[in-house]
Design a protein that fits this description.
Number of helices: 4
Distance between the termini: 49 Å
Helix content: 55-70%
Structural class: mainly alpha
Largest sheet: none
Strand content: under 5%
Order of helices and strands: HHHH
C-alpha cells in the first residue's frame, strides 16, 4: 500500500538507475573474472577469482565484457543528465565546494 503523497512518483526511473548501476558493477566483475581466466590479470579480488572458474581460458569473453561494461557506462552517462538523478554526478563537486567553517562567520 502506497501513501497518497507518493502518487505520481517516478519509481520506474529509480529502478532503471539501480539496474544501470548493477549492470556497471556486474560487467566489471565479469570482465575481471574473464581476464583472470584468460591469464591477462593475476591481481583480482577473491570474488573475481572464484568466478573465473566459470569462464574458458581463450579470452573472447574478456573482450565481450569490456564492450558490455563500456556500453553500460556510456549509456548511463548519456541518460543521467536528463533524469532526476543528476545529483549523482554533481555530489562530489558539492562536497568539495562545501563550507568547512561554521555558518555565520565572515
Amino acid at each position: 500500500m502506497r501513501p497518497t503523497r507518493f502518487q505520481g512518483s517516478h519509481r520506474g526511473e529509480a529502478d532503471f538507475i539501480l539496474l544501470m548501476i548493477a549492470g556497471v558493477v556486474a560487467t566489471l566483475l565479469c570482465w575481471h573474472a574473464a581476464a583472470h581466466a584468460a591469464g591477462l590479470n593475476d591481481h583480482v579480488g577473491p570474488l573475481s577469482a572464484a568466478l573465473a572458474k566459470a569462464f574458458p581460458s581463450h579470452g573472447l569473453e574478456e573482450r565481450v565484457f569490456v564492450w558490455a561494461h563500456l556500453a553500460f557506462v556510456l549509456g548511463f552517462l548519456r541518460y543521467l543528465p536528463h533524469s532526476k538523478h543528476l545529483h549523482i554526478a554533481t555530489a562530489a563537486i558539492n562536497v568539495w565546494m562545501a563550507r568547512t567553517s561554521r555558518p555565520g562567520r565572515l
